[in-house]
C-alpha cells in the first residue's frame, strides 16, 4: 500500500505523534516528546498504563505479577526517579537459591550487585503516575484506553499524515487520524503483525523476526489464614527465591515489599522453557502444576483462599534487537521497547527515551 509522502515542513507547527503502547517505553517516549514540543496521543489496548510493570488487585491485596523489581544503572534513569521519591522504595529482601529440579536443596542467595527497587504501593504505580498528566490534560496529550490498533495507513484527508484503525472494547472500529508520527511501543510480535497487516517497513519485519522473547506463566496465591492470632510462623523464613526447579524460576512473598498489605500472598513465576512448553495449556491445569511446585519449594501445603494464573506471552527477552530503537524519520514511523536492548525495566526506559530524543533532534 502507498505510504505518506516524505515530510518537508513548510511552516512551524506542533507535530502530532501517536504512541501505541502505554508501558514503560511508551510512556517515557510520550512524555519526552511532549517536553520537546510534540502533541501526543497515547493508545493502549488494556484498561490502564503499566505494561508488564503490572499489579493485579484482589480481595486480599495486590500481586506484582509482571516485573518483580527494577535496578538502576543509567544516570538518566536515576535522575528521573529522584523526582518521585514517594513512588519508589528499595526492596531489602533475604533471598535463597533453589539448586535442584525438585526444590529440595537450597543455599543463601548471592548479595545483589544492584539495589532492587519497587514502585509503591504496586509495580504499576510509577508508570500510571507518569501517564496521568496525559490523561487529565496537564500535558499536551490524550490517552485512549481499551483500544487495539489493527492497521496503520495514510490519512484519508492529509496525504502526509497517518491514520490508525482501532478495535475498541465495546466492539467499535473508530479511526484516529492526523498523526505526523506513529511510534509502536508494543511487544515485537505485535509490532511485526501490525506492520505486516499495514504493508509497511518489510526490512523491519525481517529484523523483528530475529528477536526472541520468552513467555511466562504466573501464579498468584493468598493465605489470609496465616494472619490468625497465635499462629507463630507460616511458610519459609526467606521471602524470595530464584530457582532451578523444573517448573518454577522465581517465588516472592508480596508483603515483604514496602507499602504492601500484610496478608500472606505469594507470586510465583514459571521458567521460560516450561512456560513455552505449556503456553496453550488450560489455565486450571497450569494452576495445579504451579501450586504443586510452589509447595515443593516453600513447604506451604495449605489450600490458598485465592489462586489465579496469568499468561504473559511476551515476558523476558532472550535475544534482543541489539539497538535502542528503529526510526524512519522520513516516513514518521518508529519502534521501541525493552526487547530492543534486553529484558530489564531500565531497558524499556532507555529505549523510549533515546527514541524520543532522536525524533526531537
Automatic annotation (TrEMBL):
Annotated Amine oxidase domain ranges read 117-356
Pfam families assigned: Amino_oxidase, NAD_binding_8
Tell me the InterPro entries matching this sequence: Amino_oxidase, FAD/NAD-bd_sf
For this UniProt entry, the molecular function terms from Gene Ontology, in alphabetical order, are: oxidoreductase activity
Protein name in the entry: Amine oxidase domain-containing protein
Biological source species: Tepidicella xavieri
Amino acid at each position: 500500500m502507498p505510504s505518506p509522502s516524505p515530510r518537508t515542513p513548510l511552516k512551524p507547527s506542533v507535530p502530532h505523534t501517536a504512541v501505541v503502547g502505554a508501558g514503560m517505553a511508551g510512556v517515557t517516549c510520550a512524555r519526552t516528546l511532549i517536553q520537546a514540543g510534540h502533541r501526543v496521543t497515547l493508545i493502549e489496548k488494556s484498561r490502564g498504563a503499566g505494561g508488564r510493570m503490572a499489579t493485579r488487585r484482589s480481595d486480599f491485596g495486590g500481586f506484582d505479577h509482571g516485573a518483580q523489581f527494577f535496578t538502576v544503572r543509567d544516570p538518566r534513569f536515576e535522575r528521573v526517579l529522584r523526582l518521585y521519591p514517594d513512588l519508589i522504595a528499595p526492596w531489602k529482601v533475604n533471598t535463597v537459591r533453589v539448586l535442584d529440579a525438585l526444590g529440595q536443596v537450597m543455599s543463601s542467595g548471592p548479595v545483589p550487585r544492584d539495589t532492587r527497587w519497587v514502585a509503591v504501593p504496586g509495580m504499576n504505580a510509577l508508570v500510571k503516575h507518569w501517564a496521568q498528566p496525559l490523561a487529565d490534560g496537564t500535558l499536551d496529550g490524550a490517552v485512549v484506553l481499551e483500544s487495539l490498533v489493527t492497521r496503520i495507513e495514510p490519512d484519508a484527508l492529509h496525504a502526509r499524515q497517518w491514520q490508525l484503525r482501532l478495535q475498541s472494547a465495546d466492539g467499535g472500529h473508530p479511526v484516529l487520524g492526523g498523526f505526523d508520527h506513529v511510534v509502536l511501543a508494543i511487544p515485537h510480535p505485535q509490532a511485526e503483525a501490525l506492520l505486516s497487516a499495514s504493508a509497511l517497513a518489510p526490512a523491519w519485519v525481517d529484523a523483528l523476526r530475529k528477536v526472541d522473547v520468552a513467555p511466562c506463566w504466573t501464579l498468584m496465591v493468598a493465605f489470609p489464614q496465616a494472619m490468625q492470632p497465635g499462629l507463630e510462623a507460616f511458610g519459609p523464613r526467606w521471602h524470595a527465591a530464584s530457582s532451578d526447579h523444573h517448573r518454577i524460576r522465581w517465588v516472592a512473598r508480596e508483603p515483604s515489599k514496602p507499602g504492601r498489605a500484610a496478608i500472606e500472598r505469594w507470586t510465583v513465576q514459571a521458567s521460560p522453557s516450561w512456560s513455552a512448553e505449556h503456553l496453550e495449556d488450560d489455565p486450571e491445569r497450569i494452576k495445579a502444576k504451579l501450586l504443586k511446585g510452589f509447595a515443593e519449594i516453600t513447604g506451604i501445603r495449605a489450600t490458598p483462599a485465592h489462586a489465579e494464573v496469568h499468561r504473559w506471552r511476551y515476558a523476558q527477552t532472550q535475544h534482543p534487537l541489539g539497538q535502542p530503537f528503529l526510526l524512519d524519520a522520513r516516513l514518521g514511523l518508529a519502534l521501541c521497547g525493552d526487547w530492543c536492548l534486553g529484558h530489564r525495566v531500565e531497558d524499556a526506559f532507555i529505549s523510549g527515551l533515546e527514541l524520543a530524543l532522536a525524533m526531537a533532534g
